[in-house]
Amino acid sequence: MVLLRSASTMTDLDDLLDGLSDAQREAVLAPAPVRVIAPAGSGKTLVLTRRIAAQIRLGAVRPRTSAALTFTRAAALSLRQRLARTLDTTLPITTTIHGAALVWLSELARLEGKALPPVVESETLVRAALPNLSPAEHAAVRAALRGQRPTSPAHEAHVRAVHELRRRRRVIDLDSIVGELARQLERQPERRGLIGIEALFVDEFQDSTPDQLRLFRALLGPDLAGLTVVGDPNQSIYGWNGADPNVLTDLEPPGLRTVTLTTNYRSRDELVRHATRILDPQPHVRGARPGGRPPTLRGYATPEREARALVRELGGLHALGVAWRAMAVLSRTTRALEPVTAALEAAEIPAVVLGRTRTVSAMLARLRSLRDRRATVGHLIDELSSMQVDDPSHQHELDQVRDIAIELHRVDPLADLATFQEILEQRLARRLDAVTIATFHKAKGLEWYHVHVLGVGERALPHPRARTSAQREEERRLLYVAMTRATDSLSVSWHGGGPSPFLAPIVGDRAPLRPTPSAAARGAVARQRALRHALVAQRARLARSFAIAPSMLLSDESIETFVRTPPRCADDVVAHLTRVPPARRRAVARAIWACVSAPADS
Fold this sequence. Notes:
By secondary structure, this protein is an alpha/beta fold. Helices cover 50% and strands 12% of the residues.
């Protein structure tokens, strides 16, 4: 599709379109409604940020009547930070879908001179109404409260019981907030103007629920004019939470433009090729970073042997120069991670379960009392400053936690403690030099140089509770999400039997594919060392011509960024050359790019 714009308009957008592929540019510029299919590593957040900025510059949307909606507070704050760096105007509303719905419900109630009913936790309400539910039935009721159709007459009766208790107590539960706002706007469409939203930009749309789509139609009208959605049906992993990937794939408002991104910029092409092979049908996705090696696959007799082999693998990678923080161990369940946690501790390998270190655990106990007082992150900073640790070696951890709180407070002074905990789990793991341990679900949206996917056995994946074909396919997508967290090196293991049937397309009749886990990593690390050496040498030569220190021409941080994720073209280098005269930046960028591209696969 060719998009025609005036020369002056394109000049105004040059910085937003710089470095984007043709498909990414189309996604940024296409008039709404737009659906962007963005597979793992395809630059989804970059495209969404630049689309919002471009549509505002083009005058297609106004910030004050626009909302950028995400599914977690951490994602919302990250998107808001990106928009603040990109836009020089008022920012659009940037928050979670539930957060926005709660604010809008409160505003409608206020305009009517009423108060919003007390908001309660859905889990508390369900357990009060139905104390004897099994875990599976409890999850089904929660999903139905979020808009998913009940799967049986019994589930319908359960949902009615919860609604009846809610009416008697005159409360509203968190799961029902979105549906309640949608119902109010459907009954009185004229109230839509009181909210005043004309454009919606929705991230991770594959995790939307039917109630959320109802709300978007109620806000924008049945034609969904002004809607932009970004998502990937192959990363829909929250069906248990009421999400329905068909909300993304079946979306067909009049005039909808669909833009499909097909390039993974995160992972080596060989890893991308193997990860997509486990999907059915296989998407057409290629890796922008050529080369790499297939994932290592190994089976073990017991979980303890699997854990000990994993410790040897991580230690071998570290000996080759891979930082602890650049590695992660992922599993379907928290319980499957326990032998690994114990083995890493015994081997004195630093590890963090996404922020749940001993210092953080003690701090979170303090948070529970603070939360009752509706404390903000500002209160938390004061608390952290007065906290004492029993072990002086943990002081650095506490300092890291306080730094994260201060950073969040600068972005959003009113951020609550729940927001802080979400941010903490992701960011602390990146700041500490420690191996990250996480479940597949918690790893979504993150990436590491090396990822070991643990416990992918025939009796563990799909999970035993995945009984329907839809549930088993979600388990398949969950494994795909875990595998695509790796940028350069991936290993997969199982114990006590054969591999998961999901691995059949890449295991075939032989396992393991790679008998020595460190063999795949050795060549990759050697390439990284060669690239780092070449960049340092090239930086020194170029710096001499400007009579400046090498680190002023290109920082050490930028060099490490290029080593981990080589730029796709010379334009990607330009932003790192802040001390180089503008007239010379592209020439210098081309020289550095030539250095980057030459040794990448040697």
